[in-house]
Amino acid sequence: MARGHDSDTTRLPTDPKSAPPDLEDLRTFLNTDNRYYGFDALDDTERRPLFWARWLPAFDVTGVDEEGWRRLAELRDAIRALVCREPGAAERLSRVAARHPVRLAVETRGDRPVARLVPAGNRPEAAIAATLLGAVRAALDDGRIARLRVCDRAECQWVYYDSTKNRSGRWCSSDPCGDVMKARAYRARQAAVRG
């Protein structure tokens, strides 16, 4: 099962559809809305500490209040709309991103300059938003945003990274989603033949 796809927030299954390291936290963040098991790790105060400590430990959530969690959920939903290619998603993300002021920080690593987005404000969730918006920007710039896909199985809708050469991935995993969808298609074809 995919990372976080399992309802057990204490273990981290391997995920063959994980994203490259610079996009994996973004993908995991999008999956805080776990539609497979019907819980929202940003809204669920009981699961929140386990989720962030285990799956997104690089983010400091200390001091994030309920309003901050709401702003992060709004950001997640806007990015998810972009990944789902919903009409108006780019404009929606622009509006939501404007509520998370960031600035460009340039530092030297070795012999070259490296730029990253950092929070311009001091809200506790600002650093998380800046990091996620930086990942979105990078994925848009190099076209990898198109490789972040949502599982075609309506009961799942898990965000995965499509690493296929021709970008033809449809499911987060073969088991169970691909198998279920193939079986449904087979039964529909058989029903159509029987008339």
UniProtKB/TrEMBL annotation:
<protein>
    <submittedName>
        <fullName>Putative RNA-binding Zn ribbon-like protein</fullName>
    </submittedName>
</protein>
<dbReference type="Pfam" id="PF11706">
    <property type="entry name" value="zf-CGNR"/>
</dbReference>
<dbReference type="InterPro" id="IPR023286">
    <property type="entry name" value="ABATE_dom_sf"/>
</dbReference>
<feature type="domain" description="Zinc finger CGNR">
    <location>
        <begin position="147"/>
        <end position="190"/>
    </location>
</feature>
<dbReference type="InterPro" id="IPR010852">
    <property type="entry name" value="ABATE"/>
</dbReference>
<dbReference type="InterPro" id="IPR021005">
    <property type="entry name" value="Znf_CGNR"/>
</dbReference>
<feature type="region of interest" description="Disordered">
    <location>
        <begin position="1"/>
        <end position="24"/>
    </location>
</feature>
